[in-house]
Each structure stands twice: as C-alpha cells, then as structure tokens.
C-alpha cells in the first residue's frame, strides 16, 4: 500500500504520555488512509492522545473539524479525529498487547 510515515518519533517528542511501548504509523494511497497503532506493553494499558505530524496533515490535506473514525480489522474500537488549524489528534485507549487499524475518510 502506497506511502508510509511513522508517527512514533513525533509523538515521543510532543507528548510525555506517549510511552516507548506504543508505536503508530500511517499508510495511505489514493483510495485509503490508515493509522495503525500498537501497545507493546504486556502489562499496562495506554490512554493518551496520538498527534498527527505536520507532514501527514500536509499529505492527507485534512479539513478542519471532528470526525468519527472506526477500527477496520475487528470493528470494535471507535474514536474521534480532531483536526484544527494547528494540528490533528485522536484519543487512544488500548489494553496490553492491543492493536488497531483506523481508517480516515
């Protein structure tokens, strides 16, 4: 699938609650935009905000506003993507060893 951008480095520098046990990246092509998130901690849950990097915002050309996004592998998780003039973010609430793939439309 097309393009790739890791979001781990940006979040580690911007968000103290984003631990070294969480990893996120974006993949996209002309037809689909995905955010993949994994909590690699086998004991602790992670509850934090994932910030989308300026590079990703530019590549995706997202409109300002809030939108619901749903996890597409199992269809169980939902969250909100909040896009402002200054950035974008989604709330994460993951149990140990949990992963999700969110599709942005």
């Amino acid at each position: 699938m097309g393009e790739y951008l890791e979001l781990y480095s940006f979040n580690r520098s911007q968000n103290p609650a984003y631990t070294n046990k969480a990893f996120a990246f974006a993949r996209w092509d002309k037809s689909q935009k995905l955010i993949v998130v994994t909590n690699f901690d086998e004991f602790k849950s992670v509850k934090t905000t994932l910030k989308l990097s300026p590079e990703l915002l530019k590549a995706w050309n997202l409109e300002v506003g809030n939108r619901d996004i749903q996890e597409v592998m199992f269809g169980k998780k939902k969250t909100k993507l909040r896009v402002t003039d200054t950035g974008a973010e989604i709330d994460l609430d993951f149990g140990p060893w949990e992963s999700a793939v969110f599709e942005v439309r």
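Strands lie at 3-6, 22-28, 33-39, 46-52, 65-71, 78-83, 88-94, 99-104. The chain has a mean pLDDT of 93.
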